[in-house]
Amino acid sequence: MNRPIPGYLYEKKNSITMILFTALFALLFINLFQPFGSREWYPGTSDIMYFAFSSLIILTGMLVVVISRIILIAYAKRHDVLYWQYVLMILCEIVAMAVFYTLFSQFFPKDGLYRDVSESFRQSIFNTALVLLLPYTISWLYFSWKEKSRLLMHMEQEKGTDMRSKTLIPFCDEKGDLKISIMQDNLLYIESADNYATIYYLNKSGRAHYLLRNSLRWMEENLVKDTPLVRCHRSYIVNMDRVKILKKERGGLMLELDASDTPDIPVSKTCYESFMRKFSHYSE
After folding, report:
1. In angstroms, how far is the first alpha carbon of the chain from the final one?
2. CATH 2.40.50.1020 residue ranges in the chain?
3. Beta bridge partners of 209
4. Is the N or C terminus of the chain more exposed, i.e. has fewer CB atoms within 10 Å?
5. pTM beyond cutoff 0.90
6. 3-class DSSP state for residue 171?
7. CATH 2.40.50.1020 fits 168-282, yes or no
8. Torsion sign, CA atoms 10, 16, 17, 20
9. Which residues pair with 282 in a beta bridge?
10. Using one digit for the tens of pLDDT, what is the confidence trace for 209-230?
11. CB 75 within 8 A of CB 81
């Protein structure tokens, strides 16, 4: 009980959702099930008037919950909210609403007959606990499920990103012999010159390069698919994971990488459309 409650129980958005759901639940519960013969308290009242009257009473009582949640959110900004404090707050809500309904029954008695205060309070405590604890429990379970789903999705995304970054990209020469494999996350860009390609990557000492006898076309056809590598120029393939800035200049579109001592990589007009398609898909 001395542990902090989960943050989703006092998030502003979730608190508003809980208040609205509790109010709706109370309205439906009172008007559809009419517990403890509440409909018989005012037998001369039409169904429409009973609905309006009971709704007004319930919504007035819900002000207690609204005030309580406002205090909770304000308190949680400066302190941890412990389980025992949260339980105590709910008990205070139940007692405060029960007092309100008890006073209401005394000021507006059934058929002019005043009911016993202790009996009214006991019944109000029971009714209020039922009306509050049921939607609170449902909301708590829903928020917990939603939070766990969010965390699970985040973990899967991180795992997928981590796996992609640890993927080794193999580079073969024109004869098909494997010459070097580079971790995808370390690869910067590839520059072509005649029948050779220079692969630029990061290693322990900083930026390094490897000269490989093969064409950029072969790499585009065999390495680009399902990777962040994209052909952006007749002479360049760039790793989208390493692109820090995409900027428009007089000469056209330029890519700035996040590694020091690397030149800006141009995007040619012939590769512009295919590059932007890959960029738009990859940035989603």
Report:
1. 43
2. 168-282
3. 200
4. C
5. no
6. strand
7. yes
8. positive
9. none
10. 999 999 988 888 888 777 889 9
11. yes
